[in-house]
Design goal:
mainly alpha, 2 domains, flat, membrane, transmembrane helix
Length: 259
């Protein structure tokens, strides 16, 4: 399962194809790789399709917006071909349509790759992997973990503050000035509680011998196994395979140059 892949290796397996895809301007390459990512996501993980679709659906509208704006404002180097239709002063050509669709598909590839990582990766294991495999300083790692753990607490405290204000007769503000005052009433207690909790966490970590030393032992040992390298090779190698297939079929386009 993808959830058992080392998070740092998984991050590289997502980041490298994303960077390489940004260089392509044809429709075929991102479309085939998007289908490949979907197969990997639902075939080798326990990600719920309903949950995935709830997150992915809004980006479909964003991708359509990217495609439409690109069709209207395509540069001269990409706007070749015959004119398909005109809107006001804009002429939409076949080249503009292809570039717009390519941009939309690339955007959806980025979203699909990001969801593959986010929905199959534990945040704590990811930070531990960055510390052990990528040599990220422990001070940064544990600081990020502590801040991440505080987020649900702040949400609960904000709800308590709202209920306390409502009990005391403070209604919901409507104007901009009133909303700024409301933000100040909420932010000051939350900031004060956050400072107190951070001090307690710092004292607790110091009392347990935490000094931010890089050469330290770890209770949870993150290792890189053979299947991690296989996953990295498959994710990157499949993109090169799709690019080669696109080249053989005459679709491959990098920075406006067709190969």
């Amino acid at each position: 399962m993808i959830s058992s892949i080392n998070p740092s290796i998984k991050a590289f397996a997502i980041l490298v194809p994303g960077i390489l895809l940004s260089l392509t301007f044809d429709m075929f390459t991102p479309l085939i790789y998007l289908l490949f990512v979907l197969v990997v996501t639902f075939g080798f993980s326990d990600v719920s399709f309903k949950r995935w679709m709830k997150i992915f659906a809004p980006f479909l509208l964003v991708a359509l917006g990217f495609a439409w704006m690109t069709m209207l404002y395509t540069s001269d180097s990409f706007s070749g071909g015959r004119v398909l239709f005109e809107i006001w002063m804009f002429e939409v050509t076949t080249g503009a349509v292809m570039v717009g669709i390519s941009l939309a598909l690339r955007s959806l590839c980025f979203v699909a790759l990001s969801l593959l990582f986010v929905l199959t990766t534990d945040s704590t294991k990811f930070m531990l992997s960055l510390m052990q495999q990528c040599k990220l300083p422990p001070k940064i790692t544990y600081g990020v973990l502590a801040g991440y753990r505080f987020l649900p607490t702040f949400q609960n405290e904000l709800q308590i503050l709202r209920q306390a204000h409502r009990i005391r007769g403070v209604g919901r503000e409507r104007g901009i000035r009133d909303k700024l005052n409301q933000f100040r009433r909420y932010s000051v207690p939350l900031l004060a509680n956050g400072i107190r909790k951070s001090e307690r966490v710092a004292i607790a970590m110091e009392s347990k011998g935490f000094k931010g030393d890089v050469n330290r032992t770890h209770y949870h040992k993150m290792t890189v196994r053979k299947k991690d390298w296989i996953f990295l090779s498959v994710m990157i190698g499949s993109l090169f395979l799709v690019g080669f297939l696109s080249y053989c079929l005459g679709y491959l386009n990098i920075f406006g140059k067709t190969f």
